[in-house]
Specification:
Distance between the termini: 61 Å
Radius of gyration: 26 Å
Number of helices: 18
Shape: globular
Structural class: alpha+beta
Strand order of the largest sheet: 5-6-3-8-9
Order of helices and strands: EEEEEEEEEHEHHHEHEHHHHHHHHHHHHH
Strand content: 5-15%
């Protein structure tokens, strides 16, 4: 490095809302942002003695104006500005000033900087190589359940929000939503984008985490055989780390970031979002028992996942689970009364009684404290949860409740409720002409995956083992391609899989190319969203690979949740 000249490279993905192929100089830190504007601090050592400062900046995207709080800003063109200030500094002293950038479309980044003629930042546009699927086939027959399990966890990496880790395998995703929570003064970065959109809905996210953890706990051998235990733990921890941040006080939990209608009006990458992303919470004044209860269940289940692998983390999430369960029980109210925006997307039709029982049972299992079993039974009776067995899903937890009650008590009452649902699913439920059990008009495959999880769990615990395994094997086969139309419903897996899922970021080309027109692209999504289970057919069996059909061809974190554990169970059965 030449004397008196500081050459600073710009860090890819550092300290900016937009990161990825465009690099932001690491001496520019965005401290505040609002629609079409951001404020940033410039902080760098002076490359030489100076009387008067001149900083020539080049930007990645067009800039309308710059306000330099320390001096003047001169516009050369939309991409180039010169900022001046009357600073007198010696070489090595810090140059510090604040400026505001105003723009009309996509947030521009500072890519190159010259200070008094000396280059101090030279950003390079990096175009990533096409992603190679890391989930290699194993040749398992009739379907490669190991590969399907691996790819399902890969899908969760594609859904990550916040600063991404160095071992991120989905290479077309970058850091995003780095200012989540700034509107309320809390760090709410991280967690998962819900589906094909970019809202972080805490209620279904927590259910997804609970189910993933359940699969890791009760189908641990399948995970080990497939080599997916660490990826499974990472998927759970990405959610639970976020829940710990969102649990900002004993009786307070942030349950949503982003506003549904505003978010859904945008088709593009999360890395380039500029819309308002408000943060919503529940607390003692405005409670939310479903949200707090399901988050408690997720954290309690996660404490079992990490009990041996990371005892300190296990204890931390378990303590948070206990607090959130008490919050859910002591301050009772439907969460979507307090978080009104959630009502239009994840309204809790079943009420909060099932989440209270579900959370208590996971705490009973995680702690060994039978007092939680008693409290779960009190919820079971109070809210009339025993009338019918039921499936398990983001809204209604009865199938999971009956399973945990049976595991913890061995009582035939719960075994009978499990059989009520599974027998009906086999012999009483409607089926598509192709043979797929049809339990829901919206995202039908999601409910098949959850029901298969329950059937395989029951089989493992001695409940009609052969019948439940046989039924689940057939339904899993339907999802993976064993149907008269011979196509898979899992993106990137098997024969003739979906190519145009309703999913914004995978429809876009890699940065820095524009995402304009991606929604109407008649061809496949540019990126392969490996492992994502699409919504599925209607009751008539009709399904079309249509990016615009969000009822049947969208993907979501909760769609894959039970399916993931079912894949681990099928690995166990096939390898046993």
């Amino acid at each position: 490095m030449a004397a008196g000249v500081l050459v600073k490279t710009c860090l890819l993905g550092a300290l900016a809302l937009l990161s990825g192929a465009h690099a932001q100089c690491d001496n520019v830190v965005i401290i505040n942002a609002w629609e079409g504007n951001y404020q940033a601090d410039f902080n760098a050592p002076a490359p030489a003695d100076m009387v008067g400062l001149t900083v020539d900046m080049s930007f990645s995207r067009p800039v309308d104006t710059i306000e330099n709080y320390a001096g003047e800003a001169i516009k050369i063109d939309d991409y180039h500005f010169t900022l001046t200030a009357p600073f007198i500094l010696s070489a090595g002293e810090n140059i510090m000033f604040r400026f505001r950038v105003e723009y009309s479309q996509i947030r521009p980044l500072v890519e190159t900087e010259y200070v008094n003629g000396n280059l101090i930042c030279d950003a390079v546009i990096v175009t990533p190589a096409p992603m190679v699927n890391p989930c290699v086939g194993t040749g398992m027959q009739p379907y490669d359940y190991i590969q399907a399990l691996c790819m399902s966890y890969l899908f969760y990496e594609a859904q990550r929000s916040g600063p991404l880790p160095a071992d991120q395998r989905v290479t077309w995703r970058y850091d995003s939503a780095l200012e989540d929570g700034s509107d309320v003064g809390h760090d709410l970065t991280g967690g998962y984008y819900d589906a094909g959109d970019h809202v972080k809905f805490g209620f279904p996210m927590a259910f997804s985490a609970t189910m993933l953890a359940w699969g890791l706990v009760d189908f641990a051998d399948g995970h080990e055989t497939a080599g997916q235990t660490e990826y499974g733990r990472a998927a759970v921890k990405w959610a639970t780390d976020y829940f710990l941040k969102a649990h900002t006080a004993q009786d307070e939990l942030y349950g949503q970031v982003g506003k549904g209608d505003v978010d859904h009006a945008y088709w593009g990458r999360p890395e380039e979002m500029t819309m308002e992303r408000p943060s919503y919470k529940v607390d003692a004044t405005n409670p939310g028992s479903e949200l707090a209860g399901e988050t408690a269940a997720a954290l309690a289940a996660a404490s079992m996942v990490f009990k041996d692998a990371d005892p300190a983390y296990s204890a931390e999430v378990l303590q948070a689970a206990k607090e959130l369960y008490e919050f859910a029980d002591n301050y009772r109210m439907q969460y979507d009364v307090s978080i009104e925006d959630a009502y239009y997307y994840y309204h809790s039709f079943s009420g909060y009684g099932d989440e209270l029982a579900w959370a208590a049972l996971w705490l009973a299992r995680a702690t060994g404290d039978n007092n939680y079993v008693s409290r779960a039974r009190a919820h079971f009776d109070e809210f009339g949860l025993g009338g019918y067995g039921g499936n398990v899903g983001w809204d209604d937890k009865r199938g999971g409740i009956n399973s945990l009650f049976y595991l913890l008590t061995g009582d035939a009452e719960y075994e009978n409720l499990i059989n009520d649902f599974l027998d009906w699913a086999k012999d009483g439920a409607p089926y598509t002409p192709e043979g797929l059990v049809f339990l829901n008009e919206w995202g039908s495959n999601r409910d098949v995956g959850n029901a298969c999880f329950l059937a395989l769990w029951a089989a493992k615990h001695g409940i009609k083992t052969e019948l439940n395994q046989e039924w689940a094997r057939g339904q899993v086969g339907q999802l993976l391609g064993d149907n008269p139309k011979y196509h898979s419903f899992v993106v990137g897996f098997g024969e003739d899989p979906p190519q145009k899922p309703h999913h914004r970021s995978s429809s876009c080309p890699s940065l820095p190319e524009s995402c304009d027109g991606a929604f109407n692209n008649p061809g496949p999504n540019i990126q392969t969203l490996y492992g994502a289970l699409v919504g599925g057919p209607g009751a008539d069996g009709v399904w079309t690979d249509d990016r615009g059909d969000y009822q049947h061809n969208e993907v979501a974190c909760d769609y894959n949740a039970g399916f993931t554990g079912a894949m681990a169970a099928m690995v166990e059965i096939s390898s046993g």
